[in-house]
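sry for the spam today, last one i promise. C-alpha cells for design, 464 residues
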C-alpha cells in the first residue's frame, strides 16, 4: 500500500498544524481555513478564479452537508420554545426528579440513556431527544450545561458510536476493508470500547467535578431561558391538561423510536422522523397554547429556531469547508487533480504514516490509533475507518496476527476523534442543544479522550 504525496498534501498538513496552534491559543480560525482552501485550490488548479470560486463552493458544500443537522437543531429549539412557554416541559421531566437528585446522578443517568438510544438510532436523533428532556432538570440539580454536553458526547458519540453494536455500520466498513467477518471486529472491540468508555467518562467527570468545586463552572440555575422569551397571551392550562400534553409529546417520540426500530431507520432518516415529529408537536401545542395567536406563533418559533441554528453553525461552515476538502469534497470542488490512486488527502496522509514506521505490537497499535485519529480530523468519524481496516490488515500480515484488534482500535480512534467528541465542528449538535460554545466543549473533552486513547492503545498492545 503506497501513496504519492503532492504539494497539496503538505499544504493541507501545514494548515492542520496552524489550525491546531491557533485553537490552542483560543483564536478564531475561520480566516485560516479560508486561506487554506484558497491555497489548496490555487496550487491544485493553477487558476486564480477557480481557487476563488472554490472558496465559495466549499462553503456551499459544507452547508449542504450540515443542513440536516442545522434543521434538526432548529426545529427542536422551535418546539422547546413552546414547551417552555407553556410549562409543559416541567411535566415532561417531573418523573425524573425523584431519580436525578444531584449532578452526580444527572451526569451518569443522562450519559447511560444517551448511550442506549444511540446504540439503536445513532447519536443525532438521540441528541435532540435527550437534550430537550434532560437539560432543564440537570441544570436544576447543579449539573451545568457543559456537563450535560460532555456526558451526551462521551456516551453517545464516543462509546455508542465507536462500538456501534446494534446497527453495525462502523464495524461493517472496517471489517470489509480488513477482509474479516463483522463479528470478529465486534468481539475484538468489546474490551477496547469498555476501556475507552470507562477511562474517558470517569476522567471527564473527575475534571468536571474539580472545576465545579473550584468555581470555574457555575452551577447556579436561573430561569434566564424563560425570562428572555417573549411572553404572549397564553391560555391558562391546568396541571392535569399539561400532564396530558406532556404524555402525548413523550408518546409521539416513543412511537418514533418504535418506528425507527421496526423500519430500520438510521442516520439521516431517523433524524428526519424526529424532526418531522417535533414540527407536528410544536404545531399542536401552539394551537392549544396560543389559540388565536397560533398561526403567527408557529411561524415566529420556526424563524427563531432557524435563526438559532444558523447563528450556531455560521462559525463552523468555514472550518468544516476546509476539513471536508480532506475527503471526497476536494474532487467535487476542484476536479480530479489528486494522484490517480489517491483516496483523499487525509487518507493518503494516514497511509503514508503507516508506511514510514517499523512494526511490532506496540508500534502497530500506536500507529493504528494515530492513523484513526488523523482520519477523524475531518469531523466525520466514518470517512476514514475503511483506511483503518486496510492498515490493520497490512500490519497484521507483518505481525502474524491481531488483525481484529488492530481494526477495532483504528475504528475506535477515528470515531472518538471525528465522530463528535473533540473536533469543534463535529460537536455542534450537542453544543447547540445545550447552549454551550462548541470550542469550549471540545476543549473539555480533549484531555479525557486523549487519556482514554493512550490507555486503550496500551490495552490493545497486550491483547495482540
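last one done:
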Amino acid at each position: 500500500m503506497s501513496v504519492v504525496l503532492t504539494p497539496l498534501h503538505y499544504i493541507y498538513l501545514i494548515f492542520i498544524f496552524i489550525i491546531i496552534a491557533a485553537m490552542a491559543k483560543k483564536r478564531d480560525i475561520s480566516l485560516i481555513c479560508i486561506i487554506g482552501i484558497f491555497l489548496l485550490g490555487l496550487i491544485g488548479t493553477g487558476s486564480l478564479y477557480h481557487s476563488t470560486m472554490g472558496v465559495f463552493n466549499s462553503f456551499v458544500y459544507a452547508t449542504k452537508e450540515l443542513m440536516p443537522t442545522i434543521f434538526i437543531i432548529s426545529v427542536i429549539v422551535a418546539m422547546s420554545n413552546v414547551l417552555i412557554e407553556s410549562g409543559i416541559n416541567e411535566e415532561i421531566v417531573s418523573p425524573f426528579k425523584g431519580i436525578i437528585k444531584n449532578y452526580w446522578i444527572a451526569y451518569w443517568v443522562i450519559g447511560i440513556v444517551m448511550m442506549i438510544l444511540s446504540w439503536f438510532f445513532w447519536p443525532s436523533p438521540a441528541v435532540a431527544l435527550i437534550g430537550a428532556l434532560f437539560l432543564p432538570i440537570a441544570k436544576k440539580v447543579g449539573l451545568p450545561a457543559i456537563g450535560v454536553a460532555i456526558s451526551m458526547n462521551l456516551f453517545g458519540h464516543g462509546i455508542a458510536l465507536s462500538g456501534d453494536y446494534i446497527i453495525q455500520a462502523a464495524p461493517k466498513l472496517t471489517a470489509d476493508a480488513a477482509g474479516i467477518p463483522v463479528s470478529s471486529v465486534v468481539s475484538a472491540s468489546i474490551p477496547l470500547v469498555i476501556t475507552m468508555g470507562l477511562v474517558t467518562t470517569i476522567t471527564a467527570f473527575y475534571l468536571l467535578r474539580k472545576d465545579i468545586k473550584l468555581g470555574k463552572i457555575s452551577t447556579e440555575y436561573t430561569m434566564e431561558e424563560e425570562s428572555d422569551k417573549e411572553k404572549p397571551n397564553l391560555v391558562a392550562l391546568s396541571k392535569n391538561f399539561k400532564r396530558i400534553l406532556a404524555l402525548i409529546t413523550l408518546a409521539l417520540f416513543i412511537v418514533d423510536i418504535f418506528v425507527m426500530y421496526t423500519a430500520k431507520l438510521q442516520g439521516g432518516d431517523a433524524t428526519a422522523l424526529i424532526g418531522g415529529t417535533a414540527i407536528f408537536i410544536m404545531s399542536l401545542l401552539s394551537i392549544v397554547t396560543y389559540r388565536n395567536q397560533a398561526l403567527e406563533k408557529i411561524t415566529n418559533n420556526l424563524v427563531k429556531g432557524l435563526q438559532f441554528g444558523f447563528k450556531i453553525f455560521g462559525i463552523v461552515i468555514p472550518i468544516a469547508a476546509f476539513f471536508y476538502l480532506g475527503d471526497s469534497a476536494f474532487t467535487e470542488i476542484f476536479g480530479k487533480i489528486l494522484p490517480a490512486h489517491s483516496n483523499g488527502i487525509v487518507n493518503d496522509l494516514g497511509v503514508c504514516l503507516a508506511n514510514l514506521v517499523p512494526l511490532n505490537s506496540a508500534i502497530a497499535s500506536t500507529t493504528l490509533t494515530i492513523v484513526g485519529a488523523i482520519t477523524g480530523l475531518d469531523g466525520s468519524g466514518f470517512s476514514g475507518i475503511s483506511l483503518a481496516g486496510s492498515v490493520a490488515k497490512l500490519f497484521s500480515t507483518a505481525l502474524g496476527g491481531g488483525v481484529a484488534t488492530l481494526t477495532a482500535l483504528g475504528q475506535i480512534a477515528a470515531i472518538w476523534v471525528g465522530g463528535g467528541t473533540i473536533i469543534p465542528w463535529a460537536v455542534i449538535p450537542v453544543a447547540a442543544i445545550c447552549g454551550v460554545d462548541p470550542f469550549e466543549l471540545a476543549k473539555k473533552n480533549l484531555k479525557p479522550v486523549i487519556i482514554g486513547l493512550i490507555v486503550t492503545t496500551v490495552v490493545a498492545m497486550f491483547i495482540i
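Residues 223-231 have pLDDT under 50 and may be disordered. ok im logging off now
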